Protein: AAA family ATPase
Organism: Actinoplanes subglobosus
Amino acid sequence: MTAPTTDHVQRPPVEVRFADELARLRAADDAPTPPGWALSLRAARAFIVGDERLGVTRKFVGDPSLIDRALVSLATSRGLLLVGDPGTAKSLLSELLAAAVSGDSTLTIQGGAATTEDQIKYSWNYALLVAEGPTERSLVPAPLLRGMAHGQVVRFEEITRCPLEVQDCLLSPLSDRVLAVPELPGDGGMVFAKEGFNIIATANTRDRGVNDMSSALKRRFNFETVFPIADFDTELSLVEAEAGTLLRRSGVTAPPRRDVLEVLVTAFRELRAGRTGRGDEMERLSSVMSTAEAVSVAHAVGLRGWFLRGDAGSAADLVSCLAGTAAKDSPDDLAKLRRYLEQHTSWRNGAQWRELRDARRELPGG
């Protein structure tokens, strides 16, 4: 399959979007490199946290020591499991790590209740299987087999959404570094992992799905927790940058208004924490009020303003867009959001906060 380009692709892989940065890092990389890796640990770290000298942008906002521990884990014989609340960029981090280590982040398994071992390990071309029997030509490799055969990192998203027996098919590849294909005769029946192979899995701590991992599988992973962004200014800058990128891809030429984004990020942080900026206790929403969700709302506000009125969007648009976020998990969240707008924003001054309060009547059921 031809590698995707950035033209007309909604979200190219990071190794495509940042191909120039990866090339510069490879050219300047003179540090020791683990066997099978495309970059050294230092260069891989720079790809994720940035390097001004080489013109490499920062792509993950978080503790740099987390990146160090994650890279060291991938250089060992243990897998890496990224856990945390939804919307904390676990999937983005796993994609960046895979691109830095292997130069390819597309060997991905999406976990779910319907995920089968065939989708993880391998399946068969049944027309060839009937005609020729089990041969390497009739074998259809899935991400795990391809990653082991080529020495690349495999990403397993939402691993705890898979049934336990499906999860445990990773035990042998992680411990013995071998995958058995019993249908194939001779040496073809055993696929031994090449240098560079490892697994990065992700799991939500807030919404674990129905299947926790077995103790045997947990022992084969190093766990790293990805926390929400603690600093307001950092979160605001991230939301502004990501929303601006999404808006440009959507054909919106007006950048998001920073004063509107300040109201948005403040509201998200307070609804997430259950406490206002002056210390008042309030009801937390059961919906996920993550940074990723804030970016999505900022994108929707910009689209609403641009395509409906020809402007960059306003605080009044926030209310309509927040309603869709708040109503995802529980209808009671809409009432909590309305009480927040009525009771916990009245002490704030500024045109955007007044506009936000006035627009609360647009909430469904109001």
Remarks:
- The first strand starts at residue 79 and ends at 84.
- Residues 56 and 70 are 20 Å apart (CA to CA).
- The mean pLDDT is 90.
- The two ends are 51 Å apart (CA to CA).
